[in-house]
Structures are given as C-alpha cells and as structure tokens.
Amino acid sequence: MDDRLFRNAMGKFATGVTVITTELDGEAHGMTANAFMSVSLNPKLVVISIGERAKMLEKIKESGKFAVNILAAEQQEVSMLFAGQLKEKREAEFGRIKDMPVIKEALANIVCNVHSTQVAGDHTLFIGEVQEIVLREGTPLTFFEGKYGQLAEEQLV
Ligand code: FAD
Ligand code: NAD
C-alpha cells in the first residue's frame, strides 16, 4: 500500500498535540508527538509511540521515564520547535515536576515511569505508569490532515 494513502487516512483522525519530554545525564530533550492514548485507569497507564529514527527512542529507553505535555492552542510554535519545523535554532525553557523537565503552560503535564515497551514495526510503544499530573485551563492545539488548528468557538460550548 502507498505510504501517502496510509498517512492521509491517519490524518483524518483529528488529535491534540503533545510534546514528550525526558532527561538523560542532566540534559532535557523534547519531541512533538500525536500518537498518545489513555490505556488503563487501574493502574493509571498511557501509551506513546516513538519512531525508530527519533533520538527520543534511546533517551527514554535509558532514562526509563517520560512526561506527556498536552499543548494549548497558543503553543503551535512549541510544537514546531520540538518537531524540528522551525528554521532558526531556539533555546527551550522547561519547567520541572517530580525532577522531570516539562513544558510550561501546557494544558496537562503527565509524568510517567516506563511500565513496559513493545516494538511495533518501525515504532516502539512505551506504556507509561502515571506518577504525577498537573492541569491548566485552556483550549487545545489540534492536528488534522497534517495541519495545525484549534477548536472553533461554537465547538467550545
Ligand atoms: P530532534 O529531531 O533532534 O529534536 C526535535 C526538535 O526539538 C529539534 O528541532 C531540537 O532542536 C528540539 N529540541 C529537543 N530538545 C531540545 C532542547 N533541550 N532545547 C532546545 N531544543 C530542543 N514522531 C513520532 O515518533 N511519534 C509521534 O507520535 C509523532 N507525532 C508527531 C506529531 C506531529 C503533529 C508532528 C509535527 C510530528 C510528529 N512526529 C512524531 C515527528 C517528530 O516530532 C519528529 O520526527 C522529531 O523531530 C523527532 O525528534 P527527535 O527525538 O529525533 O529529536
Ligand atoms: P502526515 O500527513 O505525515 O501525518 C498524518 C498522520 O499520519 C499523522 O497524524 C500520523 O497519524 C500518521 N503518520 C505520519 N507519519 C507517520 C509515521 N512515520 N509513522 C506512523 N504514522 C505516521 O503529516 P505531516 O504534517 O507531513 O507530518 C509532519 C512530520 O511528522 C512527518 O515527517 C511525519 O512523518 C511526522 N509524524 C510522525 C508521526 C508518527 O511517527 N507517529 C505522527 C505524526 C507526524
């Protein structure tokens, strides 16, 4: 099957946008991801999917922990920074929760320890056991058909 057909089909599934963060040897690393799902309430588990070529893959394997930061509508630039979509180099500023780097002003910071991993084709699924959650009010950044967006006013009632 053609890759573009697959990506176009997956792009019909509108999602929020997250930045996955972790820290290794005192260095914070972030990566934009929309492959994120809630898995289990008891215990509290979530899953992320990281491509085999992403630097994030080895970093999470080694650190054994990650945070999922759900971006607010105003944070498209943050998403672009951590997806390598900005032309210029930028310093990233991180907050800290439970000794982990997190994205400030995100709608949710969800700090996890790796519970288990599953290699699936050219991605690795990391199931995370949730350790800490911080929430903020706001509306989400969205991703649909390969484009960023936000919810229309009438969708917010
Ligand atoms: P890099 O490409 O090195 O880092 C990513 C960017 O973040 C670089 O520009 C880097 O400068 C910056 N950065 C990282 N840490 C810091 C820091 N400490 N200070 C300053 N800048 C920093 N890929 C997946 O595998 N799974 C997904 O679910 C997924 N979803 C995506 C959803 C969207 C909407 C988009 C746009 C992309 C998605 N990607 C996903 C692709 C992924 O975001 C990119 O391939 C990304 O570049 C891979 O990051 P990396 O870990 O290889 O690190
Ligand atoms: P796109 O049209 O490539 O993405 C549409 C949808 O296709 C995404 O939401 C995702 O569900 C799926 N997808 C895209 N690339 C994939 C991959 N390598 N593996 C599994 N699923 C994938 O949108 P775009 O604006 O061209 O994306 C920007 C960049 O970010 C591209 O390089 C894309 O490959 C990457 N990306 C990767 C993933 C992922 O690895 N899960 C998800 C989204 C975007």
Automatic annotation (TrEMBL):
Instruction: Give the keywords, sorted.
Output: Monooxygenase, Oxidoreductase
Q: Which Gene3D superfamilies match?
A: Electron Transport, Fmn-binding Protein, Chain A
What protein name does the entry list?
A: Nitrilotriacetate monooxygenase component B
Query: Which superkingdom?
Result: Bacteria
Task: Quote any Pfam family the record assigns.
Answer: Flavin_Reduct
Q: What is the lineage of its organism?
A: Bacteria, Bacillati, Bacillota, Bacilli, Bacillales
Q: Does the keyword Oxidoreductase apply?
A: yes
Where does the Flavin reductase like domain lie?
Answer: 10-150
Molecular function in Gene Ontology: monooxygenase activity
